[in-house]
Every structure is written in structure tokens, then in C-alpha cells.
Amino acid sequence: MNAGSTSLETLGPALLGRLPxxxxxxxxDRTALQPGMAHLGVGAFHRCHQAEYTDDLLxxxxxxxxxxxxxxxxxxxxxTLGRQGGLYTRLIRENSHVDARVIxxxxxxxxxxxxxxPALDVLSSPDIELVTMTVTEKGYCHIPSSGALDLDHPxxxxxxxxPETPRSVPGILARALERRRATxxxxxxxxxxxxxxxxxxxxxxxxxxxxxxxxNGLADWIAGNAxxxxxMVDRIAPAVTRDDFDSVEQWFGYHDGAVAVGxxxxxxxxxxxxxxxxxxxxxxGATFVDDVTPFEHxxxxxxxxxxxxxxxxxxxxxxxxxxxxxxxxxLSAFIRRMLIEETLPTLLPVPGMxxxxxxxxxxxxxKNTAIRHRNHQIATDGSQKIVQRLLNPIRxxxxxxxxIGLLSVPVAGWMAYLIQASSRFxxxxxxxxxxxxxxxxxxxxxGHDARALASAILAxxxxxxxxLAANGAFREAVTSALNxxxxxxxxxxxxxxxxxxxxxxxxxxxxxxx
Length: 514
Ligand code: CS2
Hints:
oxidoreductase
């Protein structure tokens, strides 16, 4: 974003000493930093999360690791972060409260959208010991239902044929590791910070499968010299809007083209499995653990599950943001009941955390009206999100012989969201999802029969595990919710599932009283 019509000065190292007192500045000498880690995917989340933790750590002066930020997809970084010397304003907002701080941990930015070469030069450098990444769920090129590398993915097909000029994340990482092996042989930790289940395992799997296909011993070298820890990351940091840029100008009197906005809450749990040195993020609030799984289930099933539910049902109800959806009494009652009745019993015990309190805390976070998180943004790439957020807890519930009537509603919500974007249903809104065309094709061919629609979508086995898709109770619950969600009164699906749950609850309590 350029300075536009304003004549205000743009944030940069020269302005640091002249910022209003309300804006905190880096509490360390940035010129002494050394690029020790790279981050792939410098978006709003990275700027509000890993880069902030690193800024906290740098302020403790324990080490001097700066971040090299790399984008291999749009947007470009040179015109925003680049021209600001890596500096940006991080706003933490909660209702009327604002906390502003300039973050200084990003020391260099690299645009590698046109070709992987600039990214590969950084990732294969001996100075880089760690690569963190937020490349979105679909960046891993895996099959959501199994976690395996999707060998039919066009970018993977391309990269296997042209391994020296890769386009995909697995192809780029495999090539960087190959160059490290050939040049200096130094180990590398690759830390996924995306919301996919067992993200380190999936990352390792896609990179290893890709390397195995190369058949030059690379996979063995990777096994001995790279580590892929799992991590749970959390902070709500939506896409930045024009309003956010304008706010910084109005409140603080300077222009910043790389503002990031997040909520106060943040969490980072990292599996202690590193190939070499790691930044001591544990000194600034991150937790290093042996097993991330319980934390990951808690976060993806409760917070992210609630977000996806509110997003798709919110769009169907004509609501714009998460905070609007949760302010709706029906949706708010539904989400609380769904999480407490159906999601919580699927969770593993989480050391030091009380699940019910976590649910209440999560619902509180979603009510934050200063966080303008659009329902359409969260609904983007839903096909890559519903397995870990909704389908895995449903599978666990069915395994316990327990009810799934509430969790099935947002699954049908995801279907209805994509179905109604098809031409047969009047293209009610634009969508972005790798499965949008597939679902639109089903909708165009099938028409308005909810049973036939649900059946055809449940047959997509790269999303729905066939065992789950064959389950009668699940099919019935999804079909009946979809039928209502596609009607003129979509929220009837939400009302009815709550009523049915209430009836079942009464029945259970009568039985246990006998
Ligand atoms: C959101 C997440 O867009 C989405 O899919 O659910 O980005 C969410 O805000 C973060 O995971 C919160 O940590």
C-alpha cells in the first residue's frame, strides 16, 4: 500500500525516534540483529504472532535472531514492509481498547512470487537454521482426509517434473534441503504454524514423499538432518482493511502500509523436537511440550470449530462478521451447546487447562467487536478446514456411540455455502475454495434435492473419509440440516437441531433418574 493522497511520513527506521509516546518501539538495537530464521507466508497472522513473540524475545536480549520474511504468493512485500525496513505497527484491539507497538523482528523481506529462486537462496543459506511457515491449509498440497501428498495436484506434478524450479511449498522445501545437503550440510528445523492437524507430521510427510520421488537419497538425508515439530498457534488476526491503515494515520500521524491487527489473546505450543538451535520463545510465553496433540484438538475443535460454524451459518443468516454472528441469540445458544455437549467430550485431557473455561474464554474472544473478522474470510477454503474442525470430532463422537446432531449442522453449512455459490443457485456470493468448482458442478447437475446433493458431496473421499460418509446417523443429520439451510428459512436447521438435542437430553435425564 503506498502513501496515497496523504502527505504523512511513512514508518521506517528514521521515524522510530519520533513516534508518539503511545506507540511502543523495539526495545533493542535492530542493527545488531542477524538473520537466523526465515518465515514463509508473511501475512496478518505472522505479523501478529511469531514476529511478535520474536520481538518480545529480542527485547530480553537472549539472542539476536532476526526473521527473513518470504512470500511465494501475493501480496508482494517490497512496497510495504520492504520500504519500511521491515517495521510495522501491530495493533491489539479489544472493543474500545487499542494497544500499538512497532515490531522490529523482521530484518529483511524477499519476494519470490515470480520464481522460487530468491526463496531458495534464503532457505538454503547456512545462516538459516529454522524455517517457520504460515502458508494456509492448502499450501501443503495434501489430501485433507488422509494427510498424504496429493500427487495429482498441478503444482506437485509440475515440481516433480521440474524440481529445480519448484512452485509448491513441498517442492520448494525439498529443493532447499537438497541444496543444503549439496553445499554445507547444516540441519534445519521446519516449523509449520498452520491450523492443520499434526501439522509437523503432515509437513514432514509431504516433503518426504516429494523427496522420495526424486530418488537420489534426499529422503534419507532429510530423515537425519531435518526436524518437523508440530505446533499449535493461536491469535485471531483478520485480513487488514483500509480502516486499519486509516486508523494508524488518524491516531498516530504516520503512514504504515503493513499494519497488522489482532486480539489480546495469543498462544503458541511447540513440540520440543528440533534439528539445531531454537529461539527461546518459551521465555516469552510460548510452551515447549512433548506432545502438542491435546492442545491442537482443543484449539481446532473449540475455537476454530466455532469460527467455521459461525462463519458459514453467519453468511447464510446474512451476517457479516464473527462478532455479528455470535451476537445473534440463536447462533450464540447453538454454538455454546454444540461445543459443550458434543465437542468437549471428544477432547484429550490438556495439561493445565480446563476445557469448559476454555470454551467460555473462546466465546468471549469471538464477541470482540473491534476484530472485524469477515465470515466470508473464515469460510474461505472450508474444504481444507472442516476435517480437523468438525469431521474429526464427529468421527470420535460416533466412535463413542454419542450424538452428532449439532456438529452435523455446520458440515451442512459448509455444503450450503458452496452450493449457493453455484450458478444453479444464483451465485449468491463469490467463494474461494479448491473444491468450489467440484461442489458447483454437483449443484448444477443435481438441482435442489438436498438428499442427492448431500449424497454426492459426501462421496468426495478426499474430504470425507468413506467410513464416516457411510454412517447412517451422520448422513441423515447432514441431509436434514442441508434441506433446511437451503430453504427460505435457513436458521430453521439451527432451531430444529437445538430442539431435537433438548428432547434427547430430557430423555437421557429421565432414563438416568429411573
Ligand atoms: C480462522 C483462523 O480464517 C480462519 O480459518 O479460523 O485464521 C483463526 O482466526 C486462527 O486460527 C486463530 O488462531
